[in-house]
Amino acid sequence: MRVPTAAIAAGSLIGGWQIARRTGVRPLGGAVLLAGGVTAGRQWYRTAGPVTAGALVATYVGAFALSHPLAKKIGSWPSVLAVSALTAAAAYAASDRHTA
CB neighbours of 74 closer than 8 A, spacing ≥ 6? Predict the structure, then answer.
């Protein structure tokens, strides 16, 4: 059974942040982000093609980058949840809904 990329992307953004936060080892959180990005990116490439996959990977990386300054304004949890939801919505709209 294929896991929707929306869940992979959102889960790895939230999970990577939580692992880095709870362990204090930021590279460990980065490893979760990388694994989620590679897993989702491979599925995006197969199901939606290289252009859409590139746009979704850029969205994923951009969400990670945006979460940091956004957290200073609205807090960590709201920031991570917001960027994860937006990334999941983009993944669903551009890739997952076509394979469901």
Answer: 82
Q: Which of 49, 46, 40 is nearest to 91 (CA)?
A: 40
Each residue of 19-41: pLDDT tens digit? 999 999 999 999 999 999 999 99
Distance of CA 43 to the CA centre of its chain: 13
- Rg over alpha carbons for the chain, rounded to the nearest Å, is 13
What are the structure tokens assigned to 9, written together?
Answer: 């992307």
Distances (CA, A) of 65 to 9, 57, 69, 80: 14, 12, 8, 10
Whether the model pTM is above 0.85: yes
Answer yes or no: are the C-beta atoms of 87 and 63 closer than 8 Å: yes
